[in-house]
Amino acid sequence: MPSGITAQNGFLYQWYAFIKLALDNAGMERFFVYEGVDDIDISEENRISAVRGYNNQFVQVKSGIVSQDCWAKVIGNWLLIADECQNYRIILENALNFDYREDAVFGKVVDYFISGEGKKSFFYRK
Length: 126
Known about the structure:
Blueprint: H1 3-24, E1 31-34, E2 40-43, E3 57-62, H2 68-80, E4 87-92, H3 103-114, H4 117-121
Parallel strand pairs: 3-4
Antiparallel strand pairs: 1-2, 2-3
């Protein structure tokens, strides 16, 4: 499948997850942001400034096959924002084809930071 179509499928799946989360939580006085700090940010307050509070949930949405490198990037980015959030969630279209508890996967998270990718790709932390 061409990369443009793959990316579009990912965005559509992400939008589907956003709508589903919002509808599942309708009437619960939560504030949802699409493509905020993470793919989906959920706050228990109804203002945008609350997105950086501690009662938030950051949601990462992944379609297709999630590689160990992709998993490491998600975990690495969450570690970078650990002081801004206590609840993280990942929504996967497909099951993982690896055990995320393996030492090799942990090593990829460490490599993500050693290579400096964590510093470059998470620009809002500056």
